[in-house]
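[Q] Does anyone have a clean structure-token version of this?
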Amino acid sequence: MATREGTWAYRDAHDDFARTFFRRFGDGVASSIGVGTYLGEPTDERDDEYYGAIRTMLSSGVNVVDTAINYRHQRSERVVGRALADADIDRDAAVVATKGGFVPFDGERPPDPGAFVQREYVDTGLVDREDLVGGQHCIAPAFLDDQLDRSLSNLALDTLDLYYVHNPETQLAENSREQVYDQLEAAFERLEERADDGEINHYGVATWDAFRVPADHEKYLSLPEVVERARAAAKSAGNTATHFRAIQLPFNVFMADAFTVAAHEGPDGPQSALWFAHEAGLDVFTSASIMQGRLATEMPDSVEAKLAGESRAQRAINFARSAPGVTCSLVGTGSVEHARENVDAGRYEPLGADAFDAVFER
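[A] Here you go.
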């Protein structure tokens, strides 16, 4: 588990970055650039590329790695575990996050995915059919219990620093918004219990649409309501404070809705997801920082001119981590060369608050 002592010692050993590269996370610190592991085919060759890239970043000043059990059919978690064990970083210096919600395959896509899910999850009682949406998504407490156990095994860890309920808005395809909030509260209560047992340190919600769309959107979930459900779950679990700590959502030059869409009711009126999270004391981890490579080749000139970095990818990363309240921006890393480029983005200053706001002025 990441500790105050471990993360601060790691920061002190990597003191050649620009100001604000390391940011507070709990009583420790996290690098404001993190390793993402979503993209890539489920092959041994891709595993080897990830292994080298992750080791490079963890050994060079990046202490955040993010994955999910369904990424590349559990291969991403497994390669993260190997890289973490072999990289030049102590376990208590690394912030490791994963997610549960999508039913994962095992190493490769099976010939008949539906039959696999039925045989491995429904027939065994791990998933009740009525809790399964689209044949692929479940956030029932018993299922998340099973997934958390598998993730700990895949990663070869005793404790996860951050465990996300993955894209709960998927449940809105077959359930009402109120039902999804109820599902989340039940899931949070179980995660509070797992935190009490020492198997996770914090938990949160990782989303794609839920927190960045308008309130009338079919995929919308209210961040204030989710926070209230986490507090209720903590109380039900007998805890004086919730272990709900973080949210994850996309944020980049072309997907800036988390900053521009005021859809979450704050004390003084509607707020964007980023501002509400900041004022609620939540850490924000952004995904899609270079928009799956698009921003490495395409960026508005008016924005790019304001950003520091040797390459366009570095400038895109620095835009994402300039947003208010962002703890860490995640970026997919497919090679050692790209890993080094991503790390080096942190040697440039991000935008200050006034300069960041100016990007959105008309």
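[Q] Thanks! Anything notable?
[A] The chain has 13 helices and twelve strands.
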